[in-house]
């Protein structure tokens, strides 16, 4: 009976115990993506060393969208809004990754639903982060919030495949 319980998955032993959930690996990827590509060092490098006229340079600059400063730079330049946007992106993406149960509602459970669930969660999180970050920032306006939501959703659409791919690394 003990062998049956272990093989039935009641314990955490075996191959499933070595991997986290799809939401957990996706959240880790969000943290890394925002921490690395939103850092002042990366943002400065992308602005100074990439060609915005090339597809590769444009994409590398796009990855810097959730730029954060946390004490760097002039507060009058919207630093609070960008910091808030980066924080909201991580929090909302983590929440949406956990709330979107792809494997439970998908007709074809497995890696395809995990990928699209992670990607979709990141698109929604980036759009909402742009919207809320502007509305809760120092100079809120509806037009600026809608423009930020559009920029965030575009960023999420083009960078969300990274989170979707990372979601493949976990179990449902």
UniProtKB/TrEMBL annotation:
Keywords on this record?
Membrane, Transmembrane, Transmembrane helix
What is this protein's record name? Uncharacterized protein
Q: What residue ranges are annotated as transmembrane?
A: 21-43, 84-103, 115-136, 143-163
Highest taxon, organism lineage = Bacteria
């Amino acid at each position: 009976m003990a062998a049956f319980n272990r093989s039935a998955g009641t314990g955490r032993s075996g191959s499933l115990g070595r991997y986290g959930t799809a939401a957990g690996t996706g959240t880790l990827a969000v943290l890394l993506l925002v921490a690395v590509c939103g850092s002042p060092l990366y943002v400065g490098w992308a602005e100074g060393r990439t060609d915005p006229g090339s597809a590769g340079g444009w994409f590398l600059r796009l990855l810097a969208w959730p730029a954060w400063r946390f004490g760097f730079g002039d507060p009058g330049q919207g630093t609070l809004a960008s910091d808030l946007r980066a924080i909201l992106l991580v929090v909302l993406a983590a929440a949406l990754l956990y709330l979107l149960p792809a494997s439970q509602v998908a007709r074809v459970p497995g890696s395809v639903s995990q990928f699209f669930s992670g990607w979709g969660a990141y698109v929604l999180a980036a759009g909402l982060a742009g919207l809320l970050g502007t509305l809760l920032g120092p100079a809120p306006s509806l037009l600026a919030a809608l423009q930020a939501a559009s920029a965030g959703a575009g960023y999420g659409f083009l960078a969300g495949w990274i989170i979707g791919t990372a979601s493949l690394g976990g179990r449902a």
